[in-house]
Amino acid sequence: MKAISLTLLCSNLFFGCTPAETAQVADVTGPTATPEETLLDDEREQTKAAVDQALAIVEKDRQKSGISVRDPHSKAFGCVRGKFTIEKNIPFDYAAGILREEYEKDSNGRIITTYPVFPAWVRFSSANPGTPGPDNRPSGLGMAIKLMNVPGKKLLESESTAQTQDFVMVNNPVFPTANISEYLSAQRNPLLFALTHPRAGLILAGLLRKKNADPAEVRYWSMTAFRYEERGMKYSAVPCAEPQTPMPENPSETYLRDNLESHLKTRSACFNFMVQIYISPELTPIEDPTIEWKESDSPFVKVATLDIPIQEFRSSKQQEFCENLSFTPWHSIQDFRPIGNLNRVRKRVYEAVAAQRRKNNGVQAKEPTPDDNFQF
């Protein structure tokens, strides 16, 4: 494997850019440590295989249903409005990028502290790939947050001037496969992979065994790692209150969507947005998302609150808008750049799938703005 300096890793690595090799240096540990990425020897070939596989799934679904859906997270329970408020008094080591207080002068020239508030779209979904299935089929859950009015150049070349920032999560702290090679093997022969990779089988079984009554009352994790300015981090969205929605005895094929709708008709939802800081390659590895970063080594700290007000979200117009929204961890400012093997591959896969879906469905790429029916 080749050790690659994080600061020199090309932002469009798989479009012909050659990363610079660096000499090995002594590890620096602690909350100010900078993580180092490591490329797989065959990462370029494995990435191409992942793109080809994802596009094949998109095409297969188009032939079956006439439309192209996402792979994965094809089924949305709903896209809802929210607001994302930066926390007061974030500890110094946990403040970075837009996740920090700001300072400005008042009319008398005095410096005052402000806590930014970003309007947001939040998409709740099933984590299953391919044609959307019933809610009562075992599946992980996804939560994707798209902030708006976010200044700064974005990482995606095609959307570098967009004023949005995405945070993409699943209701599990770890991913079932360690890298793209394992992921592709699991897709080709799931049973054989589970037999030869028992750890992955246990992670997936644990995810599928979870009983989820309401997508707005579930905790979500990023699973993979990200830059946090010069440091590294993972993030998580934790419900502000204990769940109130009971698990139905006989869940219907639409029970998750129905429960989310019932919830937001009568009461708001709230999540604490938290970050966990990279410490060292041993305690908080970035290239193997099957290894959980233990909170005893690096605790999660709240940096923002996501409030989702009472609302209706199942109109045909809003559902169409939801279907056409695109989420990717690479739709981000430089401060939160995705890192690690699976994140590097996701850049190519997400871009290719989104482009193919838009082409097949006759939809133009467009990031939302606060004018898209946002009223707080």
Question: How would you characterize this protein structure?
Answer:
- With 376 residues, the protein is α+β, with helices and mostly antiparallel strands.
- 25% of the residues lie in helices and 23% in strands.
- Strand 10 and strand 11 form a beta hairpin.
- Helix 1 runs parallel beside helix 7, helix 2 (180-188) crosses helix 3 (190-196) and helix 3 (190-196) packs across helix 4 (198-209).
- The longest helix has 23 residues, at 43-65.
- The protein is globular.
Secondary structure elements and pairings:
Elements: E1 2-4, E2 37-39, H1 43-65, E3 76-86, E4 102-105, E5 111-114, E6 117-126, E7 141-148, E8 164-170, H2 180-188, H3 190-196, H4 198-209, E9 220-221, E10 225-228, E11 231-239, H5 255-266, E12 269-277, E13 300-308, H6 316-324, E14 338-339, H7 341-361
Antiparallel strand pairs: 1-2, 3-6, 3-13, 4-5, 6-7, 7-8, 9-11, 10-11, 10-14, 11-12, 12-13
Helix pairs in contact: 1-7, 2-3, 3-4
Highlighted features:
376 residues; alpha+beta; ten-stranded antiparallel beta sheet; 7 helices; disordered N terminus
Structural class by secondary-structure content: alpha+beta
Provide mean pLDDT, rounded: 85
Number-wise, the strands total 14
Gross morphology: globular
Strand content: 15-25%
What separation lies between the terminal Cα atoms?
Answer: 50 Å
Helix-strand string: EEHEEEEEEHHHEEEHEEHEH
For the largest beta-sheet, the strand count, sense and barrel status come to: 10 strands, antiparallel
Poorly predicted runs are 1-28
**Radius of gyration, rounded?**
20 Å
Number of helices: 7
Helix percentage range? 10-25%
